[in-house]
Amino acid sequence: MTDNPAVIARPKVTEVEQHGIDTIPASHRHSRPIDLFRIQFGGANTFATVILGTFPILLGLSLWQAVAATVTGLLVGTLFLAPMGLFGPLTGTNNAVASGAHFGVRGRIVGSFLSLLTAIAFYSISVWVSGDAVVGALVRLAGVPDSDLLRAVVYAVLGAIVIVVVIYGYAFMLLVNKIVVFGNTALMLLGILAFSGSLDLGYDPGPGAYALGSFWPTFVLSALIVMGNPISFGAFLGDWSRYIPAGAKPSRVLGATFAAQLASLVPFMFGVFTATLVADQADYVIALINTAPAWYAVLLIVVAFLGGLSTGITALYGTGLDFSSVFPRLNRVKASLFIGTLAFVFILVGRLAFDMLASVNAFVGAIVICTTPWMVIMTIGWFVRRGHYREADLQVFNQGREGGAYWFDKGVNWRGMAAWIPAAIAGLLFANYPPLIEGPFRNAAGGVDISLPVSIGLAAVLYLGMLFLFPEPRYVFGPDGPRLVPARDAEMPAVVDDHTASEHRVKTRTS
């Protein structure tokens, strides 16, 4: 195929994607910002998001307090998320690899770790919730007895379907999300009709119901859990925006993310309002199916299935993509199978052996605390570099080479690492996601969780401090030079073959 940008190669939906984390050539960049909107909204317009929307109610907030916490968490999370869509068009690769510009081509393993954490959490939520909806329908409509074996079988079937879609890749995933955008939105809005006679708009369990003992700690915890949804896309936006041409207007890319996340208020509010109907029930999904009119109980299965498929593939696709480069023996398909299997084990252990809600709460908390400072460092780096990136130099480690603009100190840029590591640790020390994550300083602000401002503030201050104390080489900034920070003169290391590289990375270099 030609690399002429005017001739765009659009793959067939049933064609297995061939690209891994290599730079997408201009002739293959067939996506538009509207596709970034569709894939984000499709991935969020699901029962996994609905479940996160139920947390403010389950933690003891009143209906309108829960609405306020949900809107707050969503807006704050979106503000941090939006810039992460800009890296794909500029670098032609995913965000984990692009982060090599600020963490070093080896140090970008931080982004790979964060994508793994996010994928396991949200793949697990999607399969768990979808599976429970199917089980609930079978119990209510077909009289099938509930059992752990039944749930395990249903989880396995749904998880396998997700993996099949992921193996086909981006084009197939985009088709699924286009369907979910329209289908699930319509089905959720029908919930207004289905539950209109049961909703209590004055729902308020009273101050004694606050999970953390008082209003503000519970409100902040609720907002942080909601915030986990937009933040969870941070490591993955580049997986999809890398197919957008480099000349796309940044404002349109930013706008696509803002619009998609704001549209996710549909599933969030579905979760908030319907949670008031079953707040005293142990299993939200099963209880909601039993509460719904029979005609809508059937539709809920469709909502759960489509949503679980969409969330599962958006989470699993990116991690399989990235780990195929971290572990060169695993191509994208094999890496997806490995991560999918790992996540399935987490589902079984978390759902059948432990408290799944507590597990989800802890995972979402860890995602917010660890990913947000990484995103802050990436955004500051993009700003001071004026959006300048050298595509080829980002790939040297993946190709079994060393050197180039982003080699820094043996492949690690300690400026970014020295900011992220303390910020993530400090955030965990102040975190309060009971019962699994309870930092020793969680009561420093009277029980209010301040882990996020601590981790964000520390990451920003440390990273900017490192850029001023230890200026980066001038060659990383491009022809216009740095913005607001100093630079030092240095000779860029030549790109040379790494003779200690594995045969798989060498194969990438020579293929």
TrEMBL record:
Keyword Transmembrane: yes
Keywords assigned by UniProt, alphabetized: Membrane, Transmembrane, Transmembrane helix, Transport
Localisation: Membrane
InterPro entries in the record: Pur-cyt_permease (IPR001248), Pur-cyt_permease_Fcy2/21/22 (IPR026030)
GO molecular function: transmembrane transporter activity
Bilayer topology: Multi-pass membrane protein
Family as reported in the entry's similarity comment: Belongs to the purine-cytosine permease (2.A.39) family.
Protein name: Purine-cytosine permease
Taxonomic placement: Bacteria, Bacillati, Actinomycetota, Actinomycetes, Micromonosporales
